Amino acid sequence: MKFFLDTANLDELKKGAAWGIVDGVTTNPSLIAKEGNPIEEQIKKICDIVDGDISAEVIAVTHREMVEQGKSLAKIHKNVVIKCPLTRDGIIATNELAKSGYRVNVTLCFSAAQALIAAKAGAYIISPFVGRLDDIGQDGMDLIRQIVTIYENYGYKTKILAASLRSTNHVIDSAIAGAHIGTMPFKVMDALFTHVLTDKGLEQFLKDYSKVFHDAPVPVGV
Question: Rounded to the nearest 5 degrees, what angle is found at the Cα of 210, between the Cα atoms of 204 and 213?
């Protein structure tokens, strides 16, 4: 499973990249707006930090404008993946862009039917939103499982990107369900490191070592 950071914040991306486990980045107009820079400028800076798929979303509503904007975004960097919404115009744009060799992440997916449409249109990535379905009383993880089954049934090559992941359990459950990618805020990725027994165990190791060697440096690997 690949890990993507769902942020446009450069400080978060630098910290995540330093861990060596970040495979890509997803952004959206809301995340870009938070940083206060035009999308082209911010995406270029992100591409300088993370070497992987970087999703940049169109802000147009008609398919013609989506195609035009998408091609413009793709020129920023070879790693840019054009992001289109799962609307009728978005699917038309996805189909046209895919046929021209562009990679498209189809976003705002909330049903298996929508995911099937995106795959048929040639989407490179489909982004089902787990957390937002949970918010309205539906089982977001159930959607991931449904899409995995449908894509496997028919051999669709579209990558399943579990989005709107809000907890470590969301990340683990997505991996178990078979999602190819999980995108998450920085705080969720950071939380994946944490376990009380790890902290407790390390503290005990260091105490035991210190009792014998006092203030001697701790060997690498302890």
Answer: 145
Could you confirm whether 83 is annotated as catalytic? yes
The backbone region for 42, taken as left when phi is positive above 0, alpha when psi lies in -120 to 50, beta otherwise, is: alpha
Superfamily for domain range 2-191: Aldolase class I (3.20.20.70)
Tokens of 158: 């579209």
Of residues 2, 83, 99, 207, which has the active-site annotation? 83
Let me know: does 191 contact 168? Beta carbons within 8 Å.
yes
The answer, as to whether pTM is greater than 0.90, is yes
Strands 80-85 and 24-26 come out as unpaired
Residues constituting the chain: 222
Average pLDDT by stretches of 10, the chain with 222 residues: 98 98 98 97 98 98 98 98 98 98 98 98 98 97 98 98 98 98 98 92 83 61 42
What is the phi/psi pair of residue 6, to 5°? -100, 80
Which DSSP helix (H) or strand (E) runs through 2?
strand 2-6
- Give the residue extent of every domain in the chain: 2-191
